[in-house]
Design goal:
Elements: E1 2-4, E2 20-27, E3 33-38, E4 43-50, E5 52-57, E6 60-65, E7 69-72, E8 78-82, E9 90-97, H1 99-103, E10 126-128, H2 136-146, H3 157-183, H4 188-201, H5 209-216, H6 220-231, H7 235-253, H8 258-264, H9 270-281, H10 285-291
Parallel strand pairs: 1-2
Antiparallel strand pairs: 2-9, 3-8, 4-7, 4-9, 5-6, 5-8, 7-10
């Protein structure tokens, strides 16, 4: 738990004992950047206490005002900037948590409540605008989580987990249930998941379309069509995102040279790595690393 005077946070948001972290950030009036460009392996609830921001997730922008919130799935690039006719900074809360460890608290038959998140699709992002009546219950529960922050952890930890389950149930009712129905019953999904898991495990290797399609047991053309329908991205665009996100972790957490990082993440050409990094992250690798120095 922390309270920051500037929009700075660590890239890892959990400890060995607790799979969550709470943040309260105050962005001063002379700051325009509310949340720096980053991604992480945890999911995030962002609640705007005061101010106005443009919240960007990948290439989508959401205009948020006081008492609005947004859910960001794992491994999606996001940041926020203060906006308005007179930029006056902002105040916000963030609750970052490990979905997998959170899911482990539940029996196996509850997996369906988390199925929509498996491939971190953009459609899993859910903006929670306070002016929309159906969001009232979710916002009330979410804002209640942050009232605990001034207490010692052992005075609210169990209540926080319970409130997180309530938020998740409401998120499922409002949004995830519909996403799950879109893919239910397609036998091809198990085959695609084999290929997707292979991408995550072998991203540093020189993968080809034939290798990826072979993992799914499909022809290359059929594989490409089904892969894009399921993930929203062509196979190699998906693979490059995995590689870039992994390289972000090296940039933030190590002193390895950028050329070495590119090689470790499956890029054998530094120029190509720089070009893909800039296309996905919107900046150069050196600029990204500078944010953490």
């Amino acid at each position: 738990m922390s309270e920051n005077r500037k929009p700075i946070e660590n890239i890892i948001h959990r400890t060995a004992s607790r799979p969550f972290a709470l943040y309260h950030t105050i962005v001063e009036p002379d700051e325009t950047s509310a949340l720096y460009l980053h991604c992480h392996a945890e999911a995030e609830w962002f609640y705007l206490e005061e101010g106005q921001v443009d919240f960007m997730v990948e290439n989508q922008t959401y205009r948020m005002v006081s008492r609005d919130a947004i859910f960001i799935p794992p491994n999606l690039i996001h940041h926020a900037v203060c906006t308005g006719p007179q930029v006056k900074g902002c105040r916000f809360y963030a609750f970052v948590f490990d979905v997998k460890r959170f899911e482990q608290y539940l029996p196996a038959y509850c997996h369906t409540y988390f199925a929509a998140l498996e491939e971190n699709r953009m459609e899993c992002v859910y903006p929670i605008f306070h002016g929309e009546k159906q969001n009232g219950k979710l916002l009330d529960t979410l804002s209640g989580i942050f009232t605990h922050m001034q207490e010692p952890l052992d005075r609210y930890e169990l209540a926080l987990n319970g409130e997180l389950f309530l938020c998740w149930q409401e998120l499922y009712n409002l949004h995830f249930a519909g996403l799950c129905r879109q893919h239910t019953g397609k036998q091809i999904l198990n085959e695609l998941r084999k290929s997707i898991d292979y991408c995550h495990e072998h991203y540093a290797e020189p993968l080809t379309l034939a290798i990826l399609a072979g993992q799914a047991g499909l022809s290359e053309s059929y594989y490409c069509r089904e892969f894009r329908e399921y993930t929203g991205q062509p196979p190699f665009e998906y693979l490059n995102r995995i590689r870039i996100i992994r390289s972000c972790e090296y940039l933030a957490e190590s002193d390895k040279k950028i050329t070495e990082i590119a090689m470790l993440c499956g890029f054998n050409n530094i120029s190509y790595y720089n070009r893909i990094f800039r296309r996905i992250m919107g900046m150069r690798p050196t600029d990204y690393r500078r944010q953490f120095r």
